[in-house]
Structures are given as structure tokens and as C-alpha cells.
Design goal:
Blueprint (H helix, E strand, L loop, with lengths): L35 H10 L11 E4 L2 E6 L11 E6 L2 E4 L5 H9 L11 H10 L24 H14 L9 E3 L3 H9 L56 E3 L25 E4 L15 E4 L8 E2 L3 E3 L7
Parallel strand pairs: 6-9
Antiparallel strand pairs: 1-4, 2-3, 4-10, 5-10, 6-7, 7-8
């Protein structure tokens, strides 16, 4: 997807695989929780120190942040808005294949309570039991970001995890998909409260050592998470640009003024569901903190995934 595009992209993307017998490497064994007990351990050890995360959760301080207004001369970006957010944590990596498999194997697609009303109807109508491309060798490495997930599936994963951890979460807090404002703040703001073009700063220009994108290599699958720590955000999160476009949960049309208002569900026919950050498929123009696009919550691509945030209550559209 191209930020500001006037027409949607095709539903399924598929680049030919020059080596169909090769399975992607499993990466460098990044530390991320898979079992419920591991998720509990990560919750227990998180801290509130910006830029010095212990484990999986990276803290972002409360404050009022400028959202939007990145390129005022470019059609479609619109004005900026000051959005006040409580403190929150962002997951260090996008959700991986191994993490998503745990959701699938513990009733993720059979328990209605995990799904939004619109999401459950879609899942039942489609007979959906797994993400698209789930059996494709290019995308099944444990440490790769999961791809081929619709927004409804990403939202269900978050509710499933909250259900498993209900007794470990403080009252009023939740693990969920982020609003666009939360995503943008986590990706762009440094310790001094300054907004940056790239997660790592203003320079250098994106390279393959900083982000997973098509820098001329013509990749046919996303790299395992944790391979590009040099491209981390100031708060410590990795792969927030490149890798996979990440689903968020606020109105794309309401950006930037409404970018901090949480949407709990989307109509299956609503072209209002935002994604952020570019992907392994795209070029360097989308490897920026400002990169955003949108689609239907029922659509999926082989370069779209998601990341979880942990926060207290925020304004909601419900």
C-alpha cells in the first residue's frame, strides 16, 4: 500500500519465489513470550524507564505529542494535532509466527469471546481457521513476523491474550492494538521529546542494516525479528518501519485529531482501518515514521502483520 493512495491495492500480494524449496532462517532467537507463563513473566519485569526496557515491553512516557503534519505540502497528509496520551508500553517486536501459533492452538479460532461481533461474523462466513499464507514455506519461520492476518484476527489475538492474563493485569489496563497516535509516538519520539523522521533519527538514509525493506535485494519474505537492532526506536522497539505494515485501532479518516480515540470494532465494509510503518515488500519511501495507509478490516496481505501495546484506559468510540 502507498500512503495517500486514492485507490485500494489488490487483496493478495504474491511475489514469485526464486527458490521455492528454501525455508527462511529462524533468526537469532530473539526474546519474546510465547506461553502464558512467559507472557506473565514479561509483564512482571517491565519497567517505566524510557529507552532502557527490561525484556519485551518498552515504556513510553505520558505527555502531549504532535501527531500528523509531517509533510504539509503533500496532498492527503492534512494538519497536525496535539494529542495527550497516558504512559504505555509497546512490544519490542511484531507478533511472530510462533506467538500466533500459540493463539491458534489454544482455541483462538473457535472461541467467540475473543472476537469482535463483526469479526466473528466474518470468520464464520469465510470459514476462516488460520491466516492466509500460513502453509507457505517463505512465511513459516518461528521468528518471522506473522503475515496474512486481517484486522479482525489481530484484534482477536489481543483479546485472547488479555483473557489469559486477566489476573495479572492491573484494573483498567489492557493489551491491545494501538491507536495511530500511540503507534506514531512510540516510533518517532526520542528521549528529549523531539519527533524524528526515522525511528533511529534523521540520518542516515534507510539501509538494509536499519530496516527490512526492498533496498534492491528483491526479498521474497520478511526477515526474522530482532535482526536490525541499529534501527530501533528511542524507546527500544524494533522493526517499527519495514518488516510488516502494522494494524492499528483508530479511525484513519479521523487522523490526526481523532488518532488517540480507540476503535473497538470496524464494519467489514469500512475503508477506515489504518496500518503504519511500511514493510519488507516496499521501498525506502515508506520506511518512515510518517508512513500510513488503510484498508478493510477483512483484507490481508503477505506484508501486513501487527504489534501489541499495553496501556491504561483511553478514549473509546464505544
Amino acid at each position: 500500500p502507498t500512503p495517500g493512495a486514492s485507490t485500494p491495492t489488490p487483496r493478495l500480494l504474491n511475489r514469485p519465489n526464486p527458490n521455492p524449496c528454501s525455508c527462511p532462517p529462524t533468526g537469532t532467537n530473539p526474546r519474546y513470550p510465547v506461553t502464558v507463563e512467559e507472557w506473565r513473566e514479561e509483564l512482571a519485569q517491565r519497567n517505566e524507564v524510557f529507552g532502557r526496557p527490561v525484556g519485551y515491553w518498552c515504556y513510553v512516557r505520558p505527555g502531549t505529542y504532535r501527531i500528523g503534519g509531517w509533510e504539509k505540502k503533500k496532498k492527503g497528509w492534512g494538519p497536525s494535532a496535539d494529542i495527550t496520551l497516558p504512559g504505555f508500553w509497546v512490544a519490542k517486536y511484531p507478533i511472530t509466527v510462533q506467538q500466533y501459533r500459540e493463539f491458534m492452538e489454544t482455541g483462538g479460532y473457535t472461541n467467540e469471546r475473543y472476537w469482535t461481533p463483526n469479526g466473528w461474523k466474518w470468520k464464520e462466513d469465510e470459514g476462516r481457521t488460520q491466516p492466509d499464507y500460513w502453509g507457505d514455506e517463505r512465511f513459516r519461520g518461528d521468528d518471522q513476523p506473522v503475515i496474512g492476518v486481517a484486522w479482525y484476527e489481530a484484534a482477536a489475538f489481543a483479546v485472547w491474550l488479555n483473557t489469559q492474563l486477566a489476573d495479572a493485569l492491573l484494573s483498567g489496563s489492557a493489551i491491545r492494538l494501538p491507536t495511530e497516535a500511540e503507534w506514531e509516538v512510540a516510533a518517532a519520539y526520542d528521549a528529549a521529546g523531539q519527533r524524528r523522521t526515522y525511528p533511529w533519527g534523521e540520518a542516515p538514509e534507510p539501509t538494509g542494516t536499519l530496516a527490512d525493506f526492498d533496498d534492491g535485494r528483491k526479498p521474497d519474505h520478511p526477515a526474522p525479528v530482532s535482526e536490525r537492532p541499529a534501527g530501533a526506536t528511542a524507546c527500544g522497539a524494533q522493526e517499527m518501519v519495514g518488516s510488516v505494515w502494522e494494524w492499528t485501532s483508530s479511525s484513519h479518516k479521523a487522523y490526526p485529531e481523532g488518532s488517540g480515540i480507540l476503535a473497538k470494532d470496524f464494519s467489514s465494509e469500512s475503508w477506515d482501518t489504518p496500518v503504519r510503518g511500511g514493510s519488507w515488500w516496499g521501498d525506502k519511501t515508506n520506511v518512515r515514521c510518517s508512513s500510513r495507509s488503510w484498508n478493510l478490516p477483512v483484507n490481508w496481505y503477505n506484508n501486513w502483520g501487527f504489534r501489541l501495546f499495553l496501556s491504561s484506559n483511553v478514549r473509546s468510540d464505544f
